[in-house]
What does this fold into?
Amino acid sequence: MGPTPRKMEPEPETSSHATTPLLRAPRWRHRLAALPCATSLRLKTTVWPELGGSVGDLGTFIPIVLALTLVSHLDLGTTLIFTALYNIATGLLFGIPMPVQPMKSIAAVAVSESPHLTVPQIAAAGISTAAVLLLLGATGLMSFFYRFIPLPVVRGVQLSQGLSFAFSAIKYIRYNQDFAAGKSGSPRSWLGLDGLILALFSLSFLILSTGSGDSVDNDQTHNLDQSHSQSQRRVRQRLRILSAIPAALIVFVFGLVLCFLRDPSIFSDLQLGPSKIHLVKPSLEDWKIGFFRAAIPQIPLSVLNSVIAVCKLSADLFPEREVSATAVSVSVGAMNLVGCWFGAMPVCHGAGGLAGQYRFGGRSGASVAFLGAGKLVLGLAFGNSFVKILGQFPIGILGVLLLFAGIELAMASRDMKTKEESFVMLVCAAVSLTGSSAALGFGCGIVLFLLLKLRQMDCHGYSSKLLKFKPRSSVQDEADAEIGHSQSSN
It folds into this structure.
């Protein structure tokens, strides 16, 4: 009996209504999603944490920019436009919240030393520093240094920079500040629109919203929810909601509102339209002053904090997206070789800024791109007149933002596993803080690291090998003697 013929199944209906969507996505959208820049700006979380992280480094940015604008007459509108373009470009290129911050050593010399640096001298210092970093990056020397610098020394530099930011933040919160003179004034009053109570309220709000800075992982939260009690599930749910709040952005916008409440006359002082951009032409004397007074102390700080420390920190925070020392060094050089010629503030990539933006939710290049878009709007809309608003921004709130950035950077040093590594790191940080020089602390850390390694070398074994070694001439003499003895015996 033959096999029973299989009953033919009816063909599935292939109606276009069942398989083809009514509204097909346009081709340009798929092509746009495939571009590298789209990958860099792809959100790693929701949009609100990225917006919160975008203002994470303003505690450093605003005071330095304000001081340079008031003392050295730097054009704020030009700086806002160029730093906005830098933010957008670095967000596209690196795919992480890579910050754009002022070159702090150049700014300190320009503001605190007498006579103050002029705009052409500041530009000359920035261009000189940028040329050195571009050369180190293009030749591969920066990557060579990055590979061989011991991790405890880098952690010491990061710890010193983080604590330095934290110390400055506490001064901002406790005392009135005169950024034009670079000095702290009288103790801050408890009440008022820039009072101590307002700063402590902002600090408490950020702590309640962001905690210690640990992200709440949804997968881990789901697993915990299955095995824990109802009360613990409610706590985890509340933490997820709090972590989605752009706390730093709320605090910053609150500070902007207070600017207008403190001085309503700034409405009339604002002028619509961007600043007129002009070419800066430093003289030979400007090049000498800018290089010797400002660029020389800035170069080692840029190499250590703006390149080496940034790359190490990116490896800690984004292991799958670690940036290369060559790319960061070339990026700093290219930015300043363009902007400084037009009077923009010299900038770099700071580890403190990266820590601050990560601390408040920045996880992708979209975070700094949002910041760049905001700067670009303000620079084009108000130009240099926006300095009137920044001049009224509550300094206590800036101190709170800077405090979180500094502590986050300092906590990167918690991965030291041995007492020897911690010893090198702490000595490096102590020298850096006491001498106010990251380069001095770095040099002492390298020397200390080498001395500890020398102490652990097996010198006895090495000397024994030397004693067993015979020069080639004596070996040849013994061989000749043996040959002569054998010939004579034959």
